[in-house]
Specification:
Shape of chain B: globular
Number of strands of chain B: 13
Number of domains of chain B: 3
CATH topology of the largest domain in chain A: Aspartate Aminotransferase, domain 2
CATH architecture of the largest domain in chain A: 3-Layer(aba) Sandwich
Radius of gyration of chain A: 25 Å
CATH class of the largest domain in chain A: Alpha Beta
CATH topology of the largest domain in chain B: Aspartate Aminotransferase, domain 2
Strand order of the largest sheet of chain B: 1-7-6-5-4-2-3
Largest sheet of chain A: 7 strands, mixed
Strand content of chain A: 5-15%
Structural class of chain A: alpha/beta
Distance between the termini of chain A: 57 Å
Helix content of chain B: 25-40%
CATH superfamily of the largest domain in chain A: Type I PLP-dependent aspartate aminotransferase-like (Major domain)
Oligomer: heterodimer
Largest sheet of chain B: 7 strands, mixed
CATH architecture of the largest domain in chain B: 3-Layer(aba) Sandwich
Helix content of chain A: 25-40%
CATH superfamily of the largest domain in chain B: Type I PLP-dependent aspartate aminotransferase-like (Major domain)
Number of domains of chain A: 2
Number of helices of chain A: 13
Largest interface: A-B, 205 and 208 residues
Structural class of chain B: alpha/beta
Shape of chain A: globular
Number of strands of chain A: 15
Order of helices and strands of chain A: HHEHHHEHEHEHEHEEEEEHHEEHEEEH
Amino acid sequence: MPFIPHTEADVGEMLAAIGVEDIEGLFDEIAPGLRCGELSGVPAGLPEMEVTRLMESRAADEGRPLCFLGAGAYPHHIPQAVWQLVTRGEFYSAYTPYQAEASQGTLQVTYEFQSMIAGLTGMEVANASLYDGGSALAEAVLMAVRGNRKSRSKRVLMPRAVHPHYRACTEAIVRNQGLELVEVPFDADTGVTPAKAVAEAAGDEAVAAVVVPQPNFFGRLEDAAALTKQAHEIGAQVIAVVNPTSLALLEPPGEWGGEGADIVVGEGQPLGVPMSAGGPFFGFLCTRRNLARQMPGRVVGRTRDTEGRVGYVMTLRAREQDIRRSKATSNICTNQGLVVTAATIYMALMGPEGLDRVAKHCHANARALRDALAAIDGVQAAWDGPCFHEFVLRLDGVGAADVLGRLAGEHILGGLALEPYYPELGNALLVCATELHDEERRQRFADAMKNALAAA
Amino acid sequence: MPKLIFDEARTGRTNGAQLPPPAPEADDIPQSLRRGERPHWPEVSELQVVRHYTRLSQLNFSIDTHVYPLGSCTMKHNPRACNALAMLPGFLERHPLAPPEAGQGFLHCMHELQEILAEVTGMKGVSLAPAAGAQGELAGVTMIRAYHDARGDTGRGEILVPDAAHGTNPASAAMAGYRAREIPTDDDGDVDLDALREAVGPQTAGIMLTNPSTLGVFERHIKEIADIVHEAGGLLYYDGANLNAILGKVRPGDMGFDVIHLNLHKTFSTPHGGGGPGAGPVGVAEELLPYLPIPMVDQEGDRYVWRTESDCPHSIGRLTAFAGNAGVLLRAYVYIRMLGREGMVRVGEYSTLNSNYMMARLREAGFELAYPARRASHEFIVTLKKEHDRHGVSAMDFAKRLLDYGFHSPTMYFPLLVPECLLIEPTETESKEDIDALVEAFVAVRDEAANEPEKLRTAPHTLPLTRLDEVRAARDLHLRWSPADSSVREDTETA
């Protein structure tokens, strides 16, 4: 029997020990009328060999196109050691470290993770991760409102230049908690969020928090220092949404405007996690030390054993759902443990020099790609000014969706058509490049783009 | 204990082969936006990394190395094919926003998974979007609210939750803007029907139940509960944490549940991963179909497509930026295809057999059961109140001593209403001889409790560390390494 080790003799002895005649006898407390028949809609079981063939053919269907699509999930090189280590059974098949003495591996990895991600963002503390960047933003918004004892405001300013799915996700998760999410427009001429737009959106009413994306959804670099100062001036906390790769080059949010952001979240996928159709990824959340007790989710802390030796345990447990129940800081129960293990190993392998090189290659490749594509007739860069590894193009004449369809025919994912999300940008395309997109690959894209436009 | 990776580092050490070559300066980024000091990350070689994390892994108990009878968590074997086949390059390289035309394989798997999960739970439709059980709960309760709101029935502010429920239930209800009201359990472990009748009313939005319950027994009055709550205008929410016990035997939809979530890392054997990622698909009855979270996968002729905002205007929306924990969903799909319909029934049967067998053996050995008159589901509860009163050892002491015998401990102190309890779930993938060995360890520890109770109170004795001070961790918060730590040798090495 698949995954069941029992022999007939075992079953006989076990039933005798229980004192029932057959396995069916174990279900005698369930009313017969409740029992279901055969699950005819479920296919019959297949041996591993057959399932392997099936999955290989489904995976081959995916075709492995050359990917210039980013928009929150990015193709990067992942050193082989990362997932070889992560899929060791001792990591893969362990659970939440409830028994700390028998889970020091998971706990120390998590502590190292918290240290590295806090160091990267320039913040004092981090939690052990949330589901992904989008839901992490929702949790940060709830945390900011919870921690905002001064004004008790439940208004949060949300720039339109934040990832549309992050905004949707925040809306869905906080919807029934009486919060107000106020949109802050971006400047159509520059693609960034002006500080004065924050002041205008705030109006005369108190604001609990202002979200600041860096880079924003268009890849554009915001004046994070000015936005932070503006937010603090109106008594609001700053929630930074950042790309972790970019932080090798960009000022860490803990230093923005001198005062720094109050909460920092982001999508951890670029740190050693495959795109894998959308998950599992992980969201990171960092904050100031004095807000640590407001954090949602799991947190690992250092302590000592009875002999005085250093060890690690889950801590600040009194915030969590299994103890605080309906008064918990969040209903979250898991973290993205295995994925965080991958990120920790990735960060250790890359080191500060590695991340710096990756970020610089991403940036240089994106600039070169933008220049190559904008040199094609009918294609322009939407905005001047610095970006991080992603940029917006405007297309004349031919619809972006059409162009993307033609590129797909050449096994190229050419980016994201922005019209469904930002009709005001018209016929525009969001394109990304990473360290994977060397000259040969960029040339292939540019040639295909030329052909796609010419054929239309 | 290994040092922290930071303390193994040497300034200037890099991994030439894994890193890209030196890169051009990002000179167009204004200085005001640039980073000053580099992050304090370790500078270590690949060999150091491999050794460090291999050694750390060896400090974990895991299903692969130990019997792990952690109640309510279903720590069953994670078949290797599930991981290997979900990690084929075609799947790993798929971008979450890739259009359906770019590749149909992933969507094809997801569509079949939706259909199969709907079939095994008896629900009309399933969305795979929630990233974990708790997110599935939030989605489910939010759908209950959307359903009432759409009917203009806006006065229902209360969700009923049995006192034995998982903490996520009341926490999820609160996140969806509801008050959680507790319903007591009767002496046999069923919901107290009189208390329920008294509690329901026009303020009742619904009830959240696990069946079999967290007490390790099947809720026998489920039909009456469904009728009472439905007659009051409320809906029934099924927490799928314990579906393993009844898989292929009873379906939540047939019990009268309107909304459910599943924990794929429990019933469908996806890895627990040291605490995640999970996956918490939700299923609903017909009336709630419009509210399912997006994205979902649909079939149009012979092709598979995403269903998003424009197709599902009444959806409660997105719960993560993309499609939930897609790679976890693929692992569950592979598991389900290997099990098949006949394998699913056996999951329910053999997990229940193992649990009842172990319960019978422990009863025979003199352990006190929380519900001795009941059949066990896939798990059961032992109370150590007697041992606690006689020998001054707690369930925690007992659990820590079990670690010395090479067994992960059962769940301790949950459910909260049984004193000094251990919730034990052997799962169907453990053999009789492993269960026998676990029973022998229980007996040995119980004997020690009588003769050498100190041995339990100071356990564990055979692991790299003795008992850790959780109070100290919460009092002197130390949540990260910083460069100053490494200058204090005593902080990072054995004191």
